[in-house]
Amino acid sequence: MNKNIYIISMILILGLTSCNMPDEANNELANSENRILTAAAQTVEVILTENPLQATDEPAVSTLVIPTLGATETPDPADAIALTANASDSTPESDLPCNLASFVNDVTVDDGDDFTPGEIFTKTWRLKNSGSCPWTTGYDLIFFDGFSMGGPASQQLTNTNIDPSDEIDISVELTAPTAEGTYKGTWKLRSSEGIVFSLSNDNAFWVEIDVVP
Q1: Do 99 and 197 touch, CB atoms closer than 8 A?
Q2: pLDDT tens-digit profile of 18-34?
Q3: Using one digit for the tens of pLDDT, what is the confidence trace for 150-201?
Q4: What stretches of 55-193 show up as alpha helix (H) in DSSP?
Q5: Is residue 109 packed enough to be buried (19+ CB in 10 Å), middle (13-18) or exposed (0-12)?
Q6: pTM (2 d.p.)
Q7: CA-CA distances (angstroms) from residue 170 to 3, 74, 106?
Q8: Angle at CA 168, nearest 5°, toward 165 and 171?
Q9: 115, 176 in Cβ contact below 8 A?
Q10: How far is CA 179 from CA 110, 116, 126, 184, 186, in A?
């Protein structure tokens, strides 16, 4: 760097001096200046080659980190699944009515069985508790319509609780009419609160026989 300053200073001095010298001296000085300028240019070229200019370091740029608001965070799908599962756990499994029965089968006396006039027989149905409430000792079997065939107007349904999905055999003692023909009697159930119910769509269950000689 000092060498460069020296060369530039010499050029300025020679330029100022040449303005006040005779022509011959000026010519000689001009030749000297040309030689000096050539040498100076070569010197500068060598200096630039050996010591290239270093790029100025750019100032570091600070990065502003903006935190993401919690409200915009994307929920974890696993959490969503867990929430859905928990919500479904609290939902009732079904909308079953409290009192509902389903017919399973006839245990005794199929439809159309023959009986003689006045013959005593026992009819047994197998029903399932398809409701959401247990059948307690306060529930009854009741005659509903048709021919009662000597059966009671009502009788206790069970002497123990019949829980939902449990089955029960219900028996009633009947007597065949004295006249020949086909006879059918329908029956239903009654809750301890006095609510009459039966199969789905309020269909009753029944006994049907033929009285023959």
Answers
A1: yes
A2: 555 555 555 565 565 56
A3: 999 999 999 999 999 999 999 999 999 999 999 999 999 999 999 999 999 9
A4: 77-89
A5: middle
A6: 0.57
A7: 125, 60, 10
A8: 155
A9: yes
A10: 20, 9, 29, 14, 19
